[in-house]
Recover the amino acids of this structure.
């Protein structure tokens, strides 16, 4: 099932490549193709309006999308749908995104209608989304695109990270909902796994581009992959790609098995470190051409740099791991490492 | 790039049960003072009595079939036992090579008589092996070995010198890679493996001291040493194929990640004390890298359990894992602000010194990291 799914998604990506000139722009044809394949509801049970499948399938599909620098809010839509399904709220059709806020104001207007207000910075695909799911403390609201203002902004990779302004916006259903206990944290953990899956894909593409380039680029009368120092860089590059993949898969497995706070933070730090090495080595192998806007290597490397510090920085995750190691102390440090 | 398709492994409950048993055993061994937690004990911790106690519990030869004294517990169970032993810094050097490598080579290529002779004794923790690959003029370029075996009545006569032979001075046998035919264009042809039983009056074993002062490895000189036909391992002429399959097994185990883990345990003890000001970020980075490398090593064990030979992924684990073992020492120095001191009564300065002085070996033994990267890049560029 996974192979068929990833194969279909890879085909769709090949038919609808990202335009390197406008990487911030939604790739609408690709989005439609994904809809037709039927992967948009992946990771949400069928009885809750999704198309079934678990985290493993989602991780596999996101790997392909990450590899292709696909300009679609697939992770965000899946995550939003999953949150709503967990909260027992009807999932709207179309593209979705998620914003976590600590200051959503809920007011009741004179006519009894509910209105919500907040400024939500750096929301992925906020402009292209048709609804935003807002998690604020114990309150959950779903707000349609025509109820909020957008100021566009981008991350290092040029992906949309927009500021949304909700000023007396009317939420869907005319109400807010309570956030089930633990859902906000569970959402962060799930997002972490999804981003790691994308990172593993982007890292893989950086490797493939490097291997290909090294076999074509001629210097000193031969292709540069004939030089041992370049070969060793490709070996190290491939090794760190495997680290990224292992981090994503092991974190995904840990999350499906129970309390994964430590494993997820450790995986994030490990993936971030590895991603940094991948980007560095890929650029070194490419020489100056990789440092240009015309070369597609940047679609992978800038994503790696952007994603590794989003949704909790490496610094935060590393200090959490460090603290857990200290809390475990000498007698339980090892157990902390091997527990699921 | 098939090696990229490693799958995360969820250990079955039976493996976790086994883990608890090993831990309970180790806790008692440590509490009674029979063993102590030390770094790099799969190299330096030669303790035959400890090996026998492990053997009695069925924790050696776990990959061997029952008819040869093994437990057939499989690669994942063996993984759990070995990582628990290494994490506790237990002295496992005596049986290590026989259990990990020589025994498996005997399983794969040995005659029935050879298996019956050696495997049950290995599994009991009573029979130890050495690896006779390197020579004074043969390091990374293993196919260049010059030790010659000449056909004589009923067997072979060996002439030549092996070097860096770990544990040869205690071992009961060595599997030596020797040349049985003259060198031709095909330099990998004409090599064979022989089981040389030790000690033997025709074999000189001279200690070579490590820079730590320890006697761990040796120079081993064969003076017309007779090896009967019954001690040829596998087919004469197949030595290269056999030896490379053996090296694959050597590479991905937890011993390529955990050699210095006991130092981290001591560092955490030091940093958890009242008044300490630990650098959580730096510690967290180190622990995170360890977490992912262990996951990778476990995933490779998962492949082995499925009967595959994940040679390239194993080379990656060894390259990254052995670099990590050194990184752990360097990072720990920065974390604790304590100078390494071999004379110290306190554990941490002593362990720092011991770990540091062992660290050059991590990226050499079992094939250097440069050679590993050659293997990996070949697989990467062949795609
Ligand atoms: C603690 C320890 C225990 C050991 N135990 C055993 C044992 O029990 N049995 C046994 O047979 N051997 C043993 N060895 C030997 C070990 O296998 C060798 O040290 C190893 O294979 C390297 O060989 P060498 O030391 O001759 O170095 P060389 O091969 O001479 O290498 C020297 C340097 O050159 C580099 N180099 C060599 N060729 C290349 C190349 N093609 N491309 C790039 N760089 C290259 C190497 O990476 C290294 O950095 C042990 C070694 C150690 C340190």
């Amino acid at each position: 099932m996974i192979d068929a799914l990833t194969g279909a998604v890879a085909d769709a990506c090949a038919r609808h490549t990202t335009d390197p000139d406008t990487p911030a722009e939604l790739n609408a044809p690709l989005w439609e193709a994904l809809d037709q394949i039927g992967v948009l509801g992946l990771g949400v049970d069928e009885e809750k309006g999704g198309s079934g499948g678990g985290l493993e399938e989602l991780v596999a599909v996101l790997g392909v999308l990450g590899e292709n620098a696909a300009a679609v809010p697939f992770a965000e839509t899946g995550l939003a749908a999953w949150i709503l399904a967990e909260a027992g709220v009807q999932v709207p059709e179309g593209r979705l995104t998620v914003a976590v806020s600590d200051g959503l104001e809920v007011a009741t207007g004179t006519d009894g209608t509910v209105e919500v207000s907040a400024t939500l910075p750096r929301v992925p695909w906020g402009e292209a989304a048709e609804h935003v799911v807002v998690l604020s403390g114990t309150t959950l609201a779903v707000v349609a695109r025509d109820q909020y203002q957008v100021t566009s902004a981008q991350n290092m990779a040029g992906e949309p990270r927009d500021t949304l302004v909700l000023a007396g916006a009317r939420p869907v259903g005319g109400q807010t909902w309570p956030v089930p206990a633990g859902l906000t944290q569970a959402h962060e953990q799930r997002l972490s796994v999804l981003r790691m899956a994308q990172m593993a894909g982007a890292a893989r593409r950086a490797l493939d581009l490097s291997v290909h380039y090294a076999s074509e680029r001629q210097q000193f009368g031969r292709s540069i992959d004939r030089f041992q120092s370049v070969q060793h860089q490709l070996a190290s590059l491939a090794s760190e790609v495997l680290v990224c993949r292992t981090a994503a898969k092991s974190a995904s497995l840990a999350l499906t098995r129970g309390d994964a706070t430590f494993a997820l933070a450790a995986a994030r730090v490990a993936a971030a470190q590895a991603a940094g090495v991948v980007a560095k080595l890929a650029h070194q192998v490419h020489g100056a051409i990789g440092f240009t806007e015309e070369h597609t290597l940047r679609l992978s490397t800038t994503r790696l740099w952007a994603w590794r510090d989003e949704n909790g920085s490496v610094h935060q995750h590393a200090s959490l791991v460090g603290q857990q190691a200290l809390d475990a102390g000498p007698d339980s440090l090892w157990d902390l490492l091997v527990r699921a | 790039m098939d090696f990229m398709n490693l799958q995360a492994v969820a250990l079955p409950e039976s493996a976790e049960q086994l883990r608890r048993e090993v831990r309970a055993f180790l806790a008692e061994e440590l509490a009674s003072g029979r063993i102590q937690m030390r770094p790099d004990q799969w190299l330096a911790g030669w303790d035959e009595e400890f090996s026998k106690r492990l053997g009695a519990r069925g924790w050696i030869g776990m990959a061997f079939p029952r008819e040869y004294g093994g437990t057939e517990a499989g690669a994942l169970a063996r993984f759990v036992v070995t990582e628990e032993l290494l994490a506790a810094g237990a002295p496992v050097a005596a049986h290590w090579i026989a259990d990990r490598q020589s025994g498996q080579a005997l399983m794969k290529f040995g005659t029935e008589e050879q298996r019956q002779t050696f495997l049950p004794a290995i599994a009991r923790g009573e029979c130890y092996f050495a690896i006779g690959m390197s020579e004074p003029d043969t390091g990374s370029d293993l196919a260049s070995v010059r030790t010659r075996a000449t056909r004589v009545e009923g067997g072979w006569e060996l002439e030549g010198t092996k070097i860096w032979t770990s544990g040869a001075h205690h071992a009961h046998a060595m599997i030596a890679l020797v040349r049985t035919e003259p060198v031709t264009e095909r330099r990998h042809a004409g090599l064979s493996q022989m089981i040389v039983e030790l000690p033997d009056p025709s074999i000189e074993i001279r200690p070579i001291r490590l820079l730590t002062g320890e006697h761990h490895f040796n120079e081993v000189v064969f003076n017309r040493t007779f090896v009967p036909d019954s001690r040829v391992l596998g087919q004469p002429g197949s030595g290269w194929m056999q030896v490379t399959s053996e090296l694959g097994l050597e590479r991905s185990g937890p011993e390529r990640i955990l050699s210095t883990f006991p130092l981290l345990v001591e560092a955490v003890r030091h940093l958890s004390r009242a008044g300490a000001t630990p650098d959580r970020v730096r510690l967290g980075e180190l622990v995170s890298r360890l977490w992912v490398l262990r996951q990778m090593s476990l995933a490779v064990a998962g492949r082995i359990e499925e009967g595959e030979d994940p040679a390239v992924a194993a080379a990656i684990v060894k390259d990254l894992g052995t670099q990590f073992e050194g990184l752990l020492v360097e990072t720990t120095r920065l974390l604790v602000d304590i100078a390494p001191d071999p004379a110290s009564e306190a554990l941490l300065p002593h362990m720092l010194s011991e770990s540091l002085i062992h660290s050059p070996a991590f990226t050499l033994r079992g094939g250097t990291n440069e050679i590993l990267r050659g293997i990996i890049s070949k697989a990467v560029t062949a795609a």
